[in-house]
Amino acid sequence: MADYPSSTTLPTFTNLHAAPVPNDLDATYIASKWLFALSTAVTACDASNCAALFVEHSFWRDLLALTWDFRTFGGSTKIQRMLEDCLAVVQMTAMKMDEASATLQRPYPDIAWVSATFTFETKLGYGAGVFRLSPVEDGRFKAHTVFTNLNALKGHPEQIGKLRNPHHTDGYKWAEQRRREVEFIDNDPTVIIIGGAQSGLDVAARLKVLGVSTLIVEKEQRVGDIWRNRYDALCLQDPIWYQHMPYMPFPTSWPVHAPSTKLANWFESYVDALELNVWTSSLVSNAHQDPKTNIWSVSVTREGGSTRTLRVKHLVFAIGFGDCLPTMPEYPGADQFEGEILHSTRYKTARDYAGKKAIVVGACGSGKFTAMLMHFFGLDVTMYQRSSTLVLTITTDPLLEIADLVSFSFPLAFIADSFGKRQVLDCEKMDADLLDGLKSRGFKLNRGTYDAGAYLNAWGRRGGHYIDIGASQLIIDGKIKVKNGSQIERFTRTGLKFEDGSELTGDVIVFATWVQGDIRKAIGNICGEDVERACKPIWGYDEETEIKGVWRDLGVPNLWYMGGGLAPCRFYSRHLALQIKAIEEGIFYRKERYSAS
């Protein structure tokens, strides 16, 4: 255990003064006994006895179920205060463990916990959760992490499965009905979503089955063009079984790393199959909110130039990074360079540069992928690495809905603690040959945000890592060259000059650097400066290591931001939709969000 960083907060046997756990432990008995004690205390609104069931350095993560917000409470004292404030209001009951889920897990030799999933009810909804129990002195078990997640609203179930519409409609009537629905001939939608990529489609699908009338406004000619129009060899880095969309999983015959064009075409199929309402080649020019009613007046310019103003209750921005601009660092001499300079967001295909010499600035996901594709088309490629990169490989199993619950139950604050640091060290051991090979070529490595891995990188930095799909071996083999150790000084006629006096030559320079800017600016361009100033920050971590501004209260009534990759969009789209549905049904208002810490 000397290889791991020391920690006084991890639930190790030493920190908890516990004896090692035997392999024949009855996990089901331990879990059910603890949940019964919690349920008894919760029903009695006895926050003190609830807190006594937790270790001191514990976490309770709640998504809407108790707090109507995304909150993580660290430490038994904060957990007790939250329960004192919430239990009588929320009326949490019917806590029931899935007995088949109780298992003894040993993430490390000095850590063991009993993990189980459970369901519960509140006054307004149905939820599911996960708890993990750590051994303490005298052979007892207490909670180290608890996760509570709102799944549905009472009286307002999703209209799927047995609840879907049983009535037969003939083909003509169906087609005419869909035409009127898509064009909103009879009424205005309740929700307008700006953007028709995965985030917009996912939340629209969630709202559809909750019976909330929704329109997606997409500026491109076709749904999926945001993926279709990028470089021709783009594919998803994460495996396909991690990327499923709500209600309609990808076919099991799909490739592990789906090509972007294939994904774009799937988006069109998704719209058609789920009967989502989309206006393509359309642009939201402005939106104004009535301060008394919170109703939005939204002007949409459609293909052909006609404009329609819609009055809607909710406005959802699903615009990715909005008006954030590609990061094109400015260096003197760009006008002297005789080749081509472009950002990776404008790069289309390596075929255009076959046989030439290329410099790729940037060494994370897009940089490595661009360099790899250029090599395949015969280019002489050098990658300039401005700063160190987290590199890891990934293997996983297909995810089911229960796996989403378990995966997102880990508080980011816990991962940011020494647990994430341990995971990084484990990955380094598994990938030792790969990482040693990269270091031998001078490639600089790091361990991610807080030295805690890629998960926190993705949320805090929106990047900064590379999940290897082949480029690393090309670097190791010398087929992609690496330059680092000195900052760029200027462009030259033939390439780049660095501060240490060295130079790189190339016919094309691709900046595979990230985007910069504030997403709130894009919101302000449509909704006005007052709304922009009122919006909370978007992305990054708050003091509880929850993500700022995304999927949750944005600081302006009935204004939302929906974003993220396919997996988080699948999971968190339900939470955004449930908040909108609850507001529409009059059972939730902003003032009811739990604000105490």
UniProtKB/TrEMBL annotation:
Presence of the UniProt keyword Oxidoreductase in the record: yes
InterPro entries: Auxin_biosynth/cation_transpt, FAD/NAD-bd_sf
Keyword set, alphabetical order: Oxidoreductase
Listed GO MF terms: flavin adenine dinucleotide binding; monooxygenase activity
Superkingdom field: Eukaryota
PANTHER family according to UniProt: FLAVIN-BINDING MONOOXYGENASE-LIKE PROTEIN (AFU_ORTHOLOGUE AFUA_4G09220) (PTHR43539)
Protein name: FAD/NAD(P)-binding domain-containing protein
Originating species: Gymnopus androsaceus JB14
